[in-house]
What does this fold into?
Amino acid sequence: MSGKLVIGNWKMNTRSESAQALVAALLADPATNRDGVGVAAPAVYLAQVARQLEGGRIALASQDVSRYDADGAFTGETSAAMLADVGCRYALVGHSERRQYFAESNEALLRKMRNALAAGVTPVLCVGETLEQREGGQYLEVIRQQLAILAEIADGEYVVAYEPVWAIGTGKVASLEQIAEMHAFIKNWCLQNAGSSANIRVLYGGSVKAENAEAILATKNVDGALVGGASLSADSFRVICQAAGKLI
Ligand code: PEP
It folds into this structure.
């Protein structure tokens, strides 16, 4: 588990043609076409992107996974088995936008984590506090509650992404001290509560850009980045991946 991991989260953006152009640019560049780089494409484009990524080194990720594990009458859902079938290596779980707009509970997220693990897809559990929770001083307790599901998972590789809600898509970035404090907290919590899975990677997410990537990625206990807006431009994503590639 060496090297930083950078995953671009395209959210509900791109079309068939623009996704193809973006992937073509990432594949053409050794800074992005390498191990430790991934793209989380919209579900409808996963198969298209998977075909394009064949033969390259960029990993495919989904932005979500169903809580239901068996095929059946779950209209609109995408199962972990389907994600594995099209070649997803990672699945985001519990992104703050999903927690906020789709009221995803810890119970649902635990099911998603288990389904992904059972299908051989590495879940990336996203955790983060709101501005109110940070300013109210409850931020560590909030993250502790969100991490609690990891104690229910017996084994398997997973990733945690710390994404303060107030820093996502807002241009506000957590300070390096805030990032260092939270990443140390998450790693310690996992060491004490998540048994053999304690070797997890903890990514930072929240307005990571070309200009701030190097400093964030060099911060202690930051094992990579989850990048939203800046991953939609091959130029800015390349700079972030380049910064990650220089660091161990
Ligand atoms: C995200 O969507 O996970 C994210 C961190 O977004 P942004 O980089 O745009 O803040």
